[in-house]
Design brief:
The chain is α+β, with helices and mostly antiparallel strands and about 725 residues long. Helices cover about 50% and strands about 10% of the residues. β1 and β2 form a beta hairpin. The chain is flat and about 105 Å long.
């Protein structure tokens, strides 16, 4: 007979005593349970004791979390949180250095527990931590434990960051600015400042003023990878909390300090592999930099007003006067043509001069010859397209002149319109590079070549606009083919960017090698492959192969779960540094998980204290269905987190283990693997992709002997039986 649902069988340990094996009744008050346990060991004053998990984070058991205790859990009898908080509060005030150090070390460990943290804060423990820091008499290990404990206590959000004293903040800042300071103290100090920055505008301005960008750049140039990482984290936090104007000034200063070249040489191409956290920060830095173009991209041009204004929902301050706009357009024309229209005023009449200008603007590829600003009314790409055209004409004048003059000499219907192409190409680049889109909390995809060039967007445009002209000629296009040409160019750019070239020169080489004929070959190969797989006999063979290949994919998914994955804990306040690992046991019966330290790649299964039997798993939730995404419903939902979130519902009480996958690929592997464990179909897009690849390979191997032989849709008819069977050989005569 199975035990009642509210009873769990557990073991309770105590130092120097034989463990107790008990049946814990969840309906029984925890105080009564502790009384029974203490009585069994003849311990008085049961109220001074508490239960906590023996493994993992050693969380205290309370009435609110006791429901998470599972059958087979090992607990430990220890001093109660209030007693421990009182003891450590006294210990950190001790004059004995060893006692003080041990107390702070234990405090840093126990402060991860919310129950203990509440007790310690209620005793005004933070005030004592402030005193240790503000006095400034302790350094090294004592100070590091103090700052670690402070970080853990603040993590529970019992106290606002805005309540920190000026003296405390000044001390933290001084640790960052000191040259001769313990690296662990500087790392923790920068983590504290990183948390302060987004909490309020006042704290942001204080940190920005006291910790200069130059100081952060100094920390970025050290060989200590963790210190380098924390410096980058603080820099990113400052950039994200800044206003548009402040962000623009900061990025300009970073450009002057050649930060991109340093990152490109010493971080991206360093001997050490790039970690996930640093990859995320580089992605954010790239995104913030590219988003500086958003204002120009969303600025539409009104050719009839005196100023160029942003769209109605944007800031209404003028960005470009009509005169400046005309001068930029005229500079494009003058750079391409040594025109008669630029002759002295008395040479031609106004009408003649206007006619010549209109003719030259038409040769430049503007749709509206008399008022070319009309072509820039659409936003996006808005003024960003004009910026790119001017940059191209000024920084690569020979390529610009060649583009324009070459097309001027062609027939009208065969000329590639420079202005129209530039406007559309700018829009394509904005879409590919996600200009104007908010930063993801989890993305790590950045382009290494971005950090090798200061004016990345403009230089990329210069390469791609010449690619447009090259592809136009290869396609022998006419004006009617404009959209087709730009579609091919988009494909050339995206295919080349997917190769992650390390420099713009390499990008230029590869994108030019991917000419129109190569694109046609790739398309033809894909089309032929699709046509081959649509023949009726091939479709039947596909269906017969599917079950075997799906089983192969299932096995791969389970193997991936056995290897495990490192997940990050993400809160609504910030991207957290805390890590946890989850993996499936080799016999596919238990999920093991637990917190791990930074730098641990694949912890042994024995080091993961928490367990969920696969038999207890009830359901898999994804996206908006997950409880940890519903908790954030009050704020703005982050699209990326929603796409990567999934949860396991387990046990009779239907607890949830919540995940946020590091990448979409890991999300697909884990959700597929968990569905396999639940006996359900694999539903991710990766399953279909993998199945298509495996089917394609298997079909090609099976049909190898039928190459260049057309496969009929219907089998050939079976011939009629012969009129007689006299042609058969009679074996009876041979035996005689």
């Amino acid at each position: 007979m199975p035990p009642p649902k509210d009873v769990v069988k557990i073991a309770i340990q105590m130092v120097g005593a034989i463990p107790q094996l008990i049946e814990l009744q969840q309906s029984k008050p925890l105080a009564a349970v502790l009384k029974d346990v203490c009585d069994a060991w003849s311990l008085p004053n049961a109220e001074r004791y508490a239960l906590q998990y023996a493994d993992g984070r050693q969380t205290y058991i309370t009435e609110s979390n006791r429901g998470e205790i599972k059958n087979g859990s090992i607990l430990r009898l220890t001093t109660s949180p209030d007693q421990e908080a009182e003891r450590l509060y006294s210990g950190i005030q001790s004059n004995n250095v060893d006692v003080k150090t041990d107390s702070l070390k234990k405090l840093a460990s126990l402060s991860q527990d919310v129950t203990f943290a509440q007790e310690f804060i209620n005793r005004n423990g933070l005030k004592q931590i402030f005193y240790i820091v503000e006095e400034g008499n302790d350094t090294g290990e004592i100070l590091a434990h103090t700052l670690k404990a402070f970080m853990e206590l603040m993590e529970h959000d019992f106290v606002s960051w805005e309540t920190l004293s000026a003296a405390f903040i000044k001390k933290i800042v001084s640790y960052v600015n000191m040259n001769a300071m313990d690296a662990s103290v500087q790392q923790l100090s920068m983590s504290i400042l990183e948390n302060m920055v987004p909490s309020s505008r006042v704290l942001f301005e204080l940190v920005k003023r006291e910790v200069t960008v130059d100081r952060l750049l100094t920390h970025l140039q050290v060989t200590n990878a963790q210190l380098q990482l924390k410096a980058m984290a603080l820099l990113i936090a400052l950039l994200l909390a800044a206003t548009d104007a402040e962000r623009r000034d900061m990025m300009e200063y970073l450009r002057e300090k050649n930060i991109r070249q340093f990152i490109h040489k010493n971080i991206i191409h360093s001997s050490e592999p790039l970690g996930d956290e640093m990859a995320h920060y580089l992605y954010v830095l790239q995104s913030v930099s590219l988003n500086l173009h958003e204002r120009r991209m969303r600025t539409s041009v009104d050719p009839y007003s005196q100023t160029t204004m942003r769209r109605a929902q944007q800031c209404p301050s003028p960005l470009l006067s009509l005169q400046e706009q005309r001068e930029l357009l005229q500079s494009l024309r003058q750079a391409a043509f040594e025109s008669e229209s630029d002759a002295p005023a008395g040479t031609f009449s106004t009408e003649r001069r206007r006619s010549l200008c209109a003719k030259e603007f038409r040769k430049l590829g503007f749709m509206n010859n008399s008022n070319p600003a009309e072509d820039l009314r659409r936003a996006p790409p808005g003024l960003l397209a004009l910026d790119n055209m001017v940059y191209f004409s000024r920084h690569t004048p020979s390529a610009y002149s060649r583009f324009v003059l070459e097309n001027s000499s062609r027939e009208d219907k065969h000329e590639c319109p420079f202005a129209r192409s530039s406007i559309q190409l700018t829009l394509i680049l904005c879409e590919i590079l996600h200009v104007g889109e908010p930063c993801s909390e989890t993305a790590q995809a950045f382009y290494p070549m971005f950090f090798g060039q200061d004016h990345f967007f403009e230089e990329l445009f210069c390469i791609c606009i010449q690619l447009v002209n090259k592809t136009w000629k290869e396609m022998r296009a006419t004006q009617e083919d404009f959209d087709k040409v730009l579609q091919v160019v988009r494909e050339q750019i995206t295919r080349t960017l997917s190769l992650k070239p390390t420099s713009l020169e390499l990008f230029k080489t590869r994108v030019n090698a991917l000419n129109y004929s190569e694109i046609l070959k790739l398309r033809q190969t894909e089309r032929l492959h699709q046509e081959e797989t649509l023949a009726v006999p091939v479709l039947e063979l596909r269906e017969r192969l599917k079950p075997e290949l799906l089983e192969l994919i299932r096995q791969q998914r389970l193997l991936r779960l056995c290897e495990g994955t490192l997940f990050r804990k993400i809160s609504s306040r910030r991207r957290q540094d805390k890590l946890w690992y989850c993996r499936l046991s080799p016999n596919h019966k238990v999920l093991h998980y637990g917190d791990v330290e930074e730098g641990v790649q694949s912890p042994p299964i024995e080091s993961l204290p928490e367990k969920i039997p696969v038999a207890d798993m009830k359901a898999l939730l994804v996206g908006k269905e997950c409880p940890h995404t519903k908790e954030k419903s009050s704020g703005k939902q982050n699209k990326d987190v929603l796409e990567l979130a999934f949860s396991i519902v387990y046990d009779v009480e239907e607890y949830c283990l919540n995940f946020v996958a590091p990448t979409r690929y890991e999300f697909c592997l884990w959700t597929d693997g968990l569905n396999v464990l639940l006996g359900k179909e694999m539903t991710s897009e990766r399953t279909q992709t993998d199945l298509d690849v495996l089917l394609s390979m298997e079909l090609k191997l099976r049909l190898l002997d039928l190459e260049n032989i057309s496969i009929p849709d219907n089998p050939p008819p079976v011939p009629k039986p012969p009129s007689n069977l006299n042609f058969c050989y009679d074996f009876s005569y041979a035996e005689q």
